[in-house]
Amino acid sequence: MLIRELKGIGFRNFESVSVSFAPGLNVFHGRNGSGKTNLLESIFVLLLGRSQRGAVDSVMLKENEEYYRLSGEIEIDGKSEEAAIAYQKGGRKKITIDKVSVRASELFRHYCAVATSPEDLEILAGAPSKRRIFLDIYLAQASPSYLADLTDYQKVLAQKNAFLKQQDNRGDTPYDDLLVDYGSRITKYRVEFLGAIYPTIEESYARVSDGHKMTVNYRSSVMKEDTDFSMENISITFRKRLKEIRGKERVMQSALCGPHRDDIDFAVRDMAARNFGSQGELRTAAVALKVAVYRYLKKVRKVNPVLLMDEIFAELDERRREMMIELFDEVGQVFITTASKIPDILDNKGRKFLIEQGTIKEVEG
Q: What is the pTM of this model?
């Protein structure tokens, strides 16, 4: 899978952008604040209809502009198609593939991308919502069924919360059966996903950190740790748990258990990532996580995902930089941003671009 060309207007600090990319490596150099991260974000939005940073469309709109539009030529299995996404101030959004309107979910079925950046430290040590967003973005690319269940779960969850806020919310909550149905499958998907990528996380982190250990565990608001995560057991336990907390949910007027309350425990050198002090070690762990995601998507989708690497070399020595790059073996198209010196291993490869104040210019050498 390749992005041949990107065009855009009104996105972030770009008044207008039109740029063609190399099929392999594309390196973007520029000072902090010049727009490097915004460029990677525009690619991710074009491919998947949302920001990898979790930003809403109104935030991605350039100041004083009424709309943004992104379009690009994308090649899949030797065939090219045009994807486009437009957002108008006030909430209107249109997505097309070859000028035919599609839902955002179709982008997840068509395209595949993995993004890594310094903000990934929040996946490891930030709020639980950051880890759930991580799971949802990449599992939705791996499984259309997961995306469908997640969409339905979120709708039913909103309906249940609205019911609980009613003055008379006595009696059985009419949405619990559906929550158990969708939520059990979501939990099963997540546990299996983390189980599948964990060996690569462990191997990649050990390789770059001189043999140190990184562990990953799914923390369910329904299931106890080290229990049987079979569909049957998840469903039975979920239903039982909802009955136990029914009174508390009425008082709190909110659904208190389910995938929307779950979390992931990351540990580095046997210490919880949220308590770990070394930013360099956490950066390494975050890259190891995304390496595992990349390889997983490549395997299940049978395509090389587009790889977006934003400022991953900051605060790392040359040896660790090169080892990080080597982790992403046999990648397809890669977009790398850096404000520091381009690592020697990347010098004289692919295309290089300079970004200054929202303008992009290809440079030689």
A: 0.91
